[in-house]
Amino acid sequence: MDHSTRRKLLQTGLAAALLAAGGMPVAAGARRGGRLRIGLSGGPAPAHWDPRFGPGLFQMVSGAGLAFDTLTEIAPDGLLRGALATSWTPSEAGRVWTLDLDPEARFHSGHPFDAADAIASLDLHKAPGDAGYGIRSLIAEMRLRGPHRFEVVLHRANADFPYLLSDPALIMGPRHSAAEVFRSGAGTGPYRVASFDGASRLLVERVPGHPRTSQGNWFDTVEILVIPRAEDRARAFAEGRVDVVDRLPQPLSERLERAHRAQTIAIPATDALRFSPGVGCAAERADAVMAALHDGLDRQALTAGDPRLCLAAMPMAPAAPGGAMAPGGLTLSIDGDLGEQGARLVAQIGQQMAALGHPMRLAEPGQAVDLHVARLTTRPTHAWTLLSLFGGEDTAPTTGSETPAQRDYVPLLSEANLVVADWIGRPEPQAQPWSTGHARMGQRWWRA
Asked: What is the DSSP pairing of strand 191-196 with strand 201-206?
């Protein structure tokens, strides 16, 4: 058997059958069953799983590979493999791609998934600002070639296009009733929603007979609890209420390691801070606030002493003290956990804005908010992620030509982590970022 044939074999369910027949379990010591309980720092967006709004931390863990699926995915060994797509064939040197879909794929409602659904799902990202816009903008045309086959014509050849389709923003939904499906979580994934309160707790259960069972899906149920404060996540882990928590400061993670035989997984991550007008901020006021933010900040001063900050990618205009806004205070709201680096950056921005005559203070409950700061976890196709954030066609973002609406993201290089109970087994992802590897923990991890 040549290398290419073996590699293709190992990307199919047939490989699992052959390994099991030969006495080698796919995951040594793995046991099916039980519940995986995850405590996350980030919660669902108001739109829940609507992919146009982007996969935040909650959406990435509960979406692609759990309740929903993408067309392709990056396996733990780093190879591209099919999810809802079973094959992708290039022509015209990679400008045209023909994709075949799994004919057994079904939505949790029982309705079959087909090529028209795939095209409609990709077309959700046609507007600038949509999470998958940077990838969708590469596509010139899509054509149906059968119930489970469609053709994608790109503006120009791109050998990486099947890899881009693994982006967790590109989860698949139906061409009809998509809004309800993305609100309820009734996708095509190996787990279906059992209960969801829309804010802090999600419980999913494994779909019996799912066609991708051989690729993982070991747990009977997966529970996700949103716990914004790091101290509360650490306490929940110590008390045995969750088995996995994310983004703990080093002293907390080390304490859990010593006292509870936990393991910390360090994960290089690329985040972004998003600055946007707050709730209740009038349009004219919002424009003035964003103009003051973009025109008044000194980027060089903000990046001093922290080489991980990528503020050069935020195309703010040169400093012009005062901007378009009359001096006065700004009310601010923030996500529950911006991370250490994000919190430090916001504090520095607050100092600069105060020097310009715009001191920032946290808004009181019920008070109109001038500026909201949120942390987003970006996706593996990072160049296209930045493109979709800033807008544009099919090249990397450039400085100085974007509109103010496209200038409210600050990319950050940070380090995330997961603290994991010792009874959990997992594959060792090779050179994979958070969103393609560890975020699929509900699909890929098991009872050791």
From this structure: antiparallel
Q: What is the pLDDT of residues 1-13, one digit of tens each?
A: 333 333 333 344 3
Determine phi and psi for 127, rounding to 5 degrees.
-90, 135
Q: Please give the pLDDT value at position 427.
A: 81
Q: How far is it, in rounded angstroms, from Cα 385 to Cα 368?
A: 31
What are the residue boundaries of the structural domains of the chain, listed by start?
Answer: 29-226+421-447, 270-415
This model's pTM is above 0.85:
no
CATH 3.40.190.10 matches 29-226+421-447: yes
Across 51-123, the runs of DSSP E, i.e. the strands, are: 72-74, 80-82, 85-91, 96-101
Across the strands, what pairs with 339? none
Spatial contact of 97 and 90, defined as CB atoms under 8 Å apart:
yes
Give the SS3 label for residue 195: strand
pLDDT digits (tens, 9 = 90+) for 404-434: 333 455 656 555 789 999 999 988 765 455 5
- State the pairing for strand pair 244-246/409-420: antiparallel
* CA proximity to 145, closest of 178, 92, 97: 97
**CA-based nearest residue to 386, from 401, 398, 404, 374:** 398
Considering the chain, what is the average pLDDT of its residues? 79
